[in-house]
Amino acid sequence: MNTSAHTRRQYLATAFNGLGAIALQGLLQRSGTAAVKPHLPRRAKRCIFLFMQGGVSQMDSFEYKPELNKLHGKRMPANLDVKGELAGRLSVDHACVGSAFKFKRHGATGRYLSELFPHLANCVDDLAFIHGVKTDNQNHGPSTLHVTTGSQFPGGASVGSWVNYGLGTENDDMPGYVVVQDPRGAPVNGAAIWSNGFLPASHQGTLLRASGAPILNLARPAGVGQQQQRDELNELSWLNRRHLAEFPDRSDLEARIASYELAYRMQTAAPELVDLSKETQQTRRLYGLDNTTTAGFGRQCLLARRMAESGVRYTLLVHGVQITSSSWDDHGNVAGGMRRHCAEVDRPVAGLLKDLKQRGLLDETLVVWASEMGRTPFVVGKLGGAPGRDHNSYGLVMWMAGGDVKGGATAGGTDDFGLRAAGEPISIRDVHATLLNLMGLEDEELRFHHAGRLRRLTNTGGFALDEVIDA
Length: 471
Description:
By secondary structure, the protein is of the alpha/beta class.
């Protein structure tokens, strides 16, 4: 190609037409080279993070609280050691809301689970639960950011970005960090929960679409052959690298250059990876793709398994849309809401765990269940016919499975009512430190210099929860 006949602007235009995915900026670099080597000998090579948007009710899911049921319709005990917003709510008329669901022991560990999780109950011995996790804000926006980025303020780097920055990707034909959100819409804060923040732009999550082409404009334009596109990319790369030589500290420019190449390779890899047509009927049933209730999240979970299989380092799945009836934010009729939400995710999540295990992938894959907060065991005002639950930043329950997770273990706990931690609350920093530890990364060693200081996911530092680590 004669470069004198084309300006740099024309080359850029051509490349944008052929590789529109560059506009996403989330198309990651060919980042097989890790920023640091693993600090710890851990089995998990990848992580699947299941985020339930809206605030899962802990006393209707994973915490059996018979004392709360005895107080149904009555006031909470007066001697509770609570402060701040919770204390304010308890100072006015309120009524306890017992769980509408039966709890039963499951597995060799005898773990209590709500009847809403009949499929997950079969996997309970592989799960390690973390109770009484505290976030620093009771509002959805800040709390969602806190769980997914370590900071309740916008601009932080997401957990997946930190993991990808620390370990790089195992597959040069796919991003190291992939996001599959609810097919019904985006979560609170949107792309901020998978942002690279202050980390190099190459570590942002890449969003896969719920249907159709996995990434918009990824396909080669009609009439453009592979060799022609390769020639155009070579010319573009030469121009961009000459420009980069004048600005060597521009990580966003270097990431953009690499993203052209990644997009080129993804034109073959990505469509094949998201094509579920070759999955067996048995596998499709395992994830619930044969049922309209479970098909949406089932597809997300099946894609997560395929991402893990292909070497994608971190996959974020989001269930729930903003603060709507499609989220877990059940201020009214919590019983009806929990029935809907759990019916959508129970079978797919259990299917994911079983599928990973039978394929020998669970030992190398860390699976994490999270939400942005828990719920209150009471409602302000009169009980009413279909009571809900309000926000509670002291009652979050999470669980982990796979890798070096100690199945059947427990860290932390809440009081008899699920209101707050029974002892010292577990900070979200400690959960993040535990996640990093299970991925072979020390939170104090995983650092990035930004704005004159060394930044970390855990900010002021966290403590890995030894109770859930089998090491």
